[in-house]
Amino acid sequence: MFDWITDLMQGGGAWAIAALMFLENVFPPIPSELIMPLAGFNAARGATPLWLAILAGGAGSLAGAYFWYLIGRGFGAERLRRLVKRHGRWLTVTPSEIDRAQDWFARHGGRAVFLGRFVPTIRTFISVPAGLARMSTLPFLLYSAAGSLIWSGVLATAGYLLEGGYQSVAHLMNPISTLVVVGLITLYIWRVITYDPSR
After folding, report:
1. How many Å apart are CA 169 and CA 152, to the nearest integer?
2. Nearest by Cα to 129 from 181, 68, 173, 176
3. Which helix or strand (DSSP H or E) is residue 139 part of?
4. pLDDT of 164 higher than 80
5. How far is CA 40 from the centre of its chain?
6. Quick one: how far is CA 128 from the chain centroid?
7. What is the C-alpha to C-alpha distance for residues 29 and 176, in angstroms, rounded to an integer?
8. Rounded distance between C-alpha atoms, residue 128 and residue 148, angstroms
9. Residue 34: its pLDDT value, please?
10. 3-state secondary structure of 46
11. Which of 3, 59, 61, 79 is the most interior residue, by most CB within 10 Å?
């Protein structure tokens, strides 16, 4: 995966960064912890300017968040519960987990959207309860944009400052990214096998 991300980013610049960060939000096994430090490393070597890499990463992340927000808003809570009752095992979600997520979001709202941008996997799915709760679009976008830009900035700046050091650990990235994907697939299979609709 690392080699694929590297080739794509070298050929596409800021557009590739934005596209990869959008995909990271839609498909979690593509980690921002891999994309943005590499974008910063490339910026240090004279490719896309650091500020543009951060802006592109934040924009792509925001687009991915908005994608899930629209799904949650358009689908609606009752329709989601019906879907979970019918296909909960394969979605690995129970109706009570949907209720708990909605209760939790009702208590934390915008703070959850902002802080969720810094947590792997959560940053992908925090937009769904925001949409289900019919959170106003502008506050959702503002909280998401702030969190996305900060997260992208921290990771890209780390890659920029590491520069030569980043290249020395790059050979570790392929097995690590593969391990992340295998871990997520294993977790999904475990959730399917141990699914209990009453939990």
Report:
1. 20
2. 68
3. helix 137-162
4. no
5. 18
6. 12
7. 11
8. 16
9. 80
10. coil
11. 61
